[in-house]
């Protein structure tokens, strides 16, 4: 984890220094505050997006796991009763065993939803890069009327 944090710092430090290149004094302080505020806004937005993905995907994974374990998908594969029987054999009451299995399924569904959020993040970043690359970099072509107005303005500037 320390290596991960160090790697992130080494990635963002040059970007921040490039953003503030050539500034001095008060301008540098204002630019540093601006870069820090922008980074804070990006972190908040990423956190909110991850929470939305988790909120939307947790019920999906919970339903999928309950279908998988309860034998609804394949009748001969009923893992829920095997698991509750083992828990009851180890001293749990039937209510405690079903509660423990439910807690386990909710926990696993939340982990799978968090995994979905982390798997979605690079795709969102990559799509943003494609949108940035797809924007027009050339000037739009002028109509004949606009071109004539521009030439007249240039001739007027030459006369002055």
The Cα radius of gyration reads 29 Å
The fraction of residues in strands falls at under 5%
Task: Calculate the mean pLDDT score and round it.
Answer: 81
User: What spatial form do the alpha-carbon principal axes imply?
Assistant: elongated
Secondary structure tally, helices: 5
Largest sheet: none
Report the strand count.
Answer: 0
**Structural class based on helices, strands and sheet pairing:** mainly alpha
Offer a few descriptive terms.
0% strand; 160 residues; mainly alpha; single chain; elongated
Could you describe the 3D structure shown?
This protein has 160 residues and is mainly alpha-helical. The chain has one domain. Helix content is 82%, strand content 0%. It has five helices and no strands. The radius of gyration is 29 Å and the shape is elongated. 4% of the residues are buried. The mean pLDDT is 81.
In brief:
This protein has about 160 residues and is mainly alpha-helical. Helix content is about 80%, strand content about 0%.
Write the layout of secondary structure elements.
Elements: H1 2-19, H2 26-70, H3 79-89, H4 94-134, H5 144-159
Helix pairs in contact: 2-4, 3-4
């Amino acid at each position: 984890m320390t290596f991960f944090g160090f790697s992130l710092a080494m990635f963002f430090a040059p970007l921040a220094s490039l953003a503030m290149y050539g500034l001095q004094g008060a301008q540098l302080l204002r630019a540093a505050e601006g870069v820090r505020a922008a980074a804070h806004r990006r972190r908040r937005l990423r956190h909110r997006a991850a929470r939305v993905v988790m909120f939307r995907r947790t019920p999906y994974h919970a339903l999928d796991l309950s279908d998988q374990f309860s034998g609804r998908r394949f009748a001969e594969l009923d893992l829920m009763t095997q698991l509750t029987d083992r828990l009851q054999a180890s001293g749990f009451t039937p209510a405690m065993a079903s509660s423990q299995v439910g807690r386990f399924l909710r926990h696993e569904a939340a982990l799978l939803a968090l995994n979905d959020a982390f798997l979605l993040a690079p795709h969102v970043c990559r799509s943003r890069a494609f949108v940035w690359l797809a924007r027009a970099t050339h000037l739009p072509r002028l109509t004949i009327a606009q071109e004539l107005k521009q030439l007249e303005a240039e001739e007027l500037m030459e006369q002055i």
